[in-house]
């Protein structure tokens, strides 16, 4: 069975590296984006199985990425969003737009892996 | 009158003229030193502040960004997108379409899925009425956006409409084509929240010139020095003004201008003084003076603060025609404001503001072009009469020139050691070259524009804002 | 050479001022030349620093991730981890590198929780970084002290508690602020005990950040805020009011009622808002009775309270203020009337224009 493809959109380079390592160890194929625009480009080019995105990103925000996937492309790909504390409003909007799950920062990478597995099963 | 009294009068005039020049240069030196110290202090104070994690707090005070727009159809969708992507949590954006004759509104409605809504405006300041109405987006991703379409009334009038509509405690008045960095609001709101012994009524920011900078859909990707000599000179001029001047004035609590392109105000006070004056072309300067005056008259301790970080990037004029028109307007704005508030000048009732800020602006900003022009005329007369002592004239001209170059280099150093925005190879050399050229490339035109401004003010009252050609930021296709 | 002589003769004949001007010109020219040459070095140096920092960042990020994934069960620090720690230890004494290592650690600290944070703390302590932070506390320069405290806060080093305590009352505002954050971050509500004796003002910035920090610890029991509500320090009272609001402190309602007559207007207004949130019906009656003595802002705040806590008995009061001189209050009064007596509200629409208030004139049916 081919590896599941995951897009990780996050502008914190250290965190991205950590998560990339962790998820690749679990056997997933990772695509990395540092902002919303890159994320959208990757979504356009590849057929992905899961999207993990930060809400606060330059230019095209995480919310717009979700909107793009659900409304423009009309895809059902599971989406997990990250948010920093104090962004409850944004999280609610993310769910309104069609996100499947969210993790508030700080979060445990192990917990993320569990959620990823859950979304992909 | 005999020749000896004429000689004496001329001597006195000479001394006055040189005294003036000497005072001006001394003041620049003093201001530069104070600015340098304050910038270092500021960097120290904020080098460990973590804006990112922290003031994305839901408890941070609400800010409404008010951006007037007139015939901005070319870029308005992108500009709005940029304004909406700020990292501050508690803010919203009000675009006031000031009777544009183009398709700005249609473009926005399409791009942001807008619909007309009912909204009761508490008209605390009289403005031109609505035209098409007030619009909000059906898409929750753009919940922060509100478009107000009204009859044309000018920038001040549009800003006042924004003041009426805003429900937040603070308003950020911004030019719609200004690129705001993601943490701009956090940094600018900090003084309002941090100062405990005085009321901060306004905060000004630095305007950086965006021409030739790479902007990828609302985000500043790369900073470049433009090839256009006029724009380059303006960059140098802005660096001098912001890095060597404003920081000092802020420290002395004498900051008289907050750039119209970006500033945050305490809404209540802005409304209490009656909002922006629609009868002046220098509305950004005028409202600050009025707000200061209000606070001085109330006897309340207050502060107008200033953030030196590059937070707002905007387009500068790249042709002489538009440049002169802009500086002409600035001159008239200065004259109008100083005249309207002349009661403050040299008046101890207004503290430092009246005794130092106002006189300084009057003498060294408002009168400077006139004195300089008079000097040039006198110089020309001497040449014509063959009375000129070349060694005198040359020595002083050379000295003035060298001082100008020195200040420019000081500004360059200041920039390098603080914000270091121009990193590419070769720009250092270009900036230095510019220091040598700027007195020839820029200054004469500023002088010309200022004189024309004076003439227009006194003899040509119908002139107003003038046009700004929109070229759009250079974008890069990925 | 001959030319030079002529020039010098010329010069000596100049009047004093002109000589001075030429002298200055020479001095300036030399100064400018030196500065220009030096500028090139400055820029080169800055560029090099940036390149180096990027190189270091990548190196340390790699090392750190490797460290985190070289964990072995039952052993606190595995062999490969020890190797990495030794490597880092060698770089830490160099200031530039130390800065980058700390920033890489920082970048991760706030984003992840659990075992990873503990591991990062181990790295921080074992590579000697903690030592440098503690050194900073002893500096004479306030910004160095503040940076040191900030670092210790970030890495949650509770062993530094005693050393940081004295800075709670440091003369420089920024240092005090960092000390506040330290105590709140490490000890949450217990850490707020410094508020008992605080005489210096707490800025809004300070307060908001402390609340943010507290909010991250959702499993904490709030402490007793009553003493703070009665503090002589107005900013402490304001902070306590925020806490009462955020943590739904119904038990302090009586104290809040007392605050309605505090001498500080901001406190009075905040008290009204908190009481609204806490369903302070008794407050509503008190304010209603004193309405005319209230300042305009308090009146507007009170109408905000009415909006949420209105009962039919309040109708006459509302009606009385439909024509209040302030537009906002008129609007609120109308809104409230609509919610309790829609017939009367619709009836107002039928009034002739000259008998309507400004708010009524502006009305559309979708208020």
Q: What would you note in describing this structure?
A:
The complex is a heterotrimer of chains A (121), B (478) and C (367). Chain A is α/β, with parallel strands linked by helices. Helices cover 46% and strands 20% of the residues of chain A. Chain A starts with a strand and ends with a helix. Chain B has 478 residues and is α/β, with parallel strands linked by helices. Helices cover 52% and strands 16% of the residues of chain B. Chain B is built from 15 helices and 12 strands. Chain B has helices at residues 3-46, 51-54, 76-84, 104-112, 155-165, 184-194, 229-251, 267-272, 283-298, 320-340, 351-366, 368-384, 390-418, 427-441, 443-459; strands at 63-69, 91-98, 114-117, 130-137, 145-150, 170-174, 179-180, 199-209, 214-216, 219-222, 262-266, 302-314. In chain B, the strands form 2 sheets. A 10-stranded mixed β-sheet of chain B has the order 3-4-5-2-1-6-11-8-12-7, with helices on both faces. Chain B has a two-stranded antiparallel sheet with strand order 9-10. In chain B, helix 3 (76-84) links the parallel strand 1 and strand 2. In chain B, helix 10 (320-340) packs antiparallel against helix 11, helix 12 (368-384) crosses helix 15 (443-459) and helix 13 packs antiparallel against helix 14 (427-441). The radius of gyration of chain B is 23 Å and the shape is globular. In chain C, helix 14 runs parallel beside helix 16 (296-309). Classes of the chains: A alpha/beta (121), B alpha/beta (478), C mainly alpha (367). Chains in contact: A-B, A-C, B-C.
Question: What is the compact description of this entry?
Answer:
Chain A has 121 residues and is an alpha/beta fold. Chain A has 5 helices and 5 strands. Chain B has helices at residues 3-46, 51-54, 76-84, 104-112, 155-165, 184-194, 229-251, 267-272, 283-298, 320-340, 351-366, 368-384, 390-418, 427-441, 443-459, and strands at residues 63-69, 91-98, 114-117, 130-137, 145-150, 170-174, 179-180, 199-209, 214-216, 219-222, 262-266, 302-314.
């Amino acid at each position: 069975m081919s590896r599941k493809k995951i897009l990780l959109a996050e502008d914190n380079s250290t965190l991205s590296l950590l998560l990339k390592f962790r998820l690749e160890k679990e056997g997933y194929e990772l695509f990395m984006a540092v902002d919303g625009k890159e994320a959208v480009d990757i979504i356009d080019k590849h057929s992905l199985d899961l999207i993990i995105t930060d809400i606060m990103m330059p230019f095209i925000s995480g919310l717009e990425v979700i909107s793009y996937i659900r409304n423009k492309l009309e895809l059902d790909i599971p989406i997990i969003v990250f948010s920093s504390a104090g962004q409850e409003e944004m999280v609610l909007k993310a769910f309104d737009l069609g996100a499947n799950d969210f993790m508030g920062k700080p979060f445990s990478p192990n917990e993320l892996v569990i959620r990823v597995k859950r979304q992909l099963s | 009158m005999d020749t000896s009294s004429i000689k004496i009068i001329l001597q006195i005039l000479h001394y006055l003229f040189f005294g003036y020049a000497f005072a001006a240069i001394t003041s620049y030196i003093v201001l530069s030193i104070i600015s340098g110290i304050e910038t270092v202090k500021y960097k120290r104070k904020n080098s460990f502040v973590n804006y990112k994690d922290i003031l994305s707090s839901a408890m941070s005070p609400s800010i409404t960004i008010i951006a007037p727009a007139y015939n901005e159809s070319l870029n308005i969708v992108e500009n709005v997108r940029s304004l909406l992507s700020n990292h501050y949590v508690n803010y919203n954006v009000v675009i006031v379409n000031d009777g544009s004759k183009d398709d700005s509104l249609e473009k926005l409605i399409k791009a942001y899925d807008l619909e007309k809504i009912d909204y009761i405006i508490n008209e605390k300041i009289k403005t031109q009425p609505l035209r098409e109405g007030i619009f909000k987006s059906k898409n929750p991703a753009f919940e922060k956006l509100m478009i107000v379409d009204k009859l044309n009334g000018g920038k001040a009038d549009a800003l006042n409409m924004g003041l009426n509509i805003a429900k937040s405690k603070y308003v950020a008045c911004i030019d719609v084509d200004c690129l705001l960095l993601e943490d701009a609001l956090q940094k600018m709101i900090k003084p309002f929240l941090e100062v405990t012994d005085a009321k901060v009524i306004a905060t000004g920011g630095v305007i950086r010139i965006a021409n030739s900078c790479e902007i990828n859909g609302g985000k500043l990707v790369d900073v470049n020095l433009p090839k256009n000599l006029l724009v380059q000179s303006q960059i140098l001029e802005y660096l001098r003004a912001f890095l060597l001047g404003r920081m000092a004035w802020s420290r002395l609590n004498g900051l008289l201008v907050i750039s119209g392109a970006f500033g945050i105000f305490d809404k209540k006070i802005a409304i209490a003084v009656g909002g922006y004056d629609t009868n002046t072309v220098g509305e950004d300067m005028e409202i600050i003076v009025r707000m200061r005056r209000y606070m001085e008259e109330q006897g309340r301790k207050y502060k107008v603060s200033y953030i030196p970080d590059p937070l707002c990037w905007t387009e500068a004029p790249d042709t002489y025609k538009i440049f002169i028109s802009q500086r002409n307007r600035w001159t008239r704005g200065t004259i109008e404001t100083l005249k309207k508030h002349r009661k403050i000048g040299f008046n101890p009732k207004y503290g430092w503001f009246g005794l130092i800020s106002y006189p300084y602006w009057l003498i060294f900003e408002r009168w400077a072009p006139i004195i300089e022009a008079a000097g040039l005329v006198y110089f020309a007369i001497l040449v014509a009469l063959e009375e000129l002592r070349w060694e005198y004239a040359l020595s002083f001209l050379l000295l003035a020139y060298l001082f100008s170059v020195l200040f420019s280099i000081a500004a360059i150093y200041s920039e390098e050691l603080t914000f270091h925005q121009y990193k590419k190879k070769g720009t250092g050399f270009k900036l230095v070259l510019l220091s040598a050229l700027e007195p020839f490339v820029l200054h004469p035109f500023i002088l010309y524009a200022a004189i024309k401004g004076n003439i227009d003010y006194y003899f040509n009252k119908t002139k107003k804002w003038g046009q700004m050609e929109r070229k759009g930021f250079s974008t890069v296709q990925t | 050479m001959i030319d030079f002589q002529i020039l010098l003769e010329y010069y000596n004949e100049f009047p004093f001022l002109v000589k001075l001007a030429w002298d200055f010109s020479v001095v300036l020219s030399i100064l400018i030349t030196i500065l220009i040459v030096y500028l090139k070095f400055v820029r080169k140096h800055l560029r090099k620093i940036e390149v180096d920092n990027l190189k270091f960042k990548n190196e340390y990020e790699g090392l750190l991730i490797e460290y985190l994934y070289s964990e072995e069960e039952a052993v606190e620090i595995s062999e490969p981890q020890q190797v990495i720690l030794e490597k880092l230890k060698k770089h830490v004494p160099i200031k530039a590198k130390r800065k980058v290592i700390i920033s890489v650690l920082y970048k991760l600290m706030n984003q992840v929780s659990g075992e990873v944070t503990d591991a990062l703390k181990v790295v921080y302590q074992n590579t000697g970084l903690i030592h440098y932070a503690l050194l900073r506390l002893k500096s004479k320069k306030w910004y160095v002290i503040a940076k040191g405290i900030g670092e210790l806060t970030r890495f949650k080093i509770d062993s530094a508690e005693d050393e940081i305590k004295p800075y709670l009352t440091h003369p420089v505002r920024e240092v005090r602020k960092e000390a506040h954050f330290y105590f709140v971050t490490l000890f949450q509500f217990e850490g707020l005990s410094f508020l008992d004796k605080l005489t210096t003002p707490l800025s809004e910035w300070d307060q908001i950040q402390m609340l943010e920090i507290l909010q991250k610890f959702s499993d904490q029991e709030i402490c007793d805020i009553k003493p703070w509500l009665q503090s002589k320090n107005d900013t402490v009272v304001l902070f306590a009011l925020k806490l009462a609001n955020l943590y739904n402190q119904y038990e302090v309602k009586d104290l809040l009622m007392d605050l309605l007559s505090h001498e500080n207007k901001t406190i009075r207004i905040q008290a009204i808002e908190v009481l609204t949130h806490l369903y302070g019906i008794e407050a509503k009656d008190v304010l209603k009775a004193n309405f005319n003595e209230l300042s305009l802002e308090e009146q507007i705040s009170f109408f905000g309270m009415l909006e949420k806590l209105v009962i039919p008995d309040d109708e006459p009061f509302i009606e009385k203020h439909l024509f209040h001189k302030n537009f906002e209050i008129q609007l609120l009064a109308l809104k409230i009337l609509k919610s309790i007596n829609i017939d009367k509200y619709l009836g107002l629409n039928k009034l002739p224009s000259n008998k309507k208030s400004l708010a009524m004139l502006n009305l559309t049916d979708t208020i």
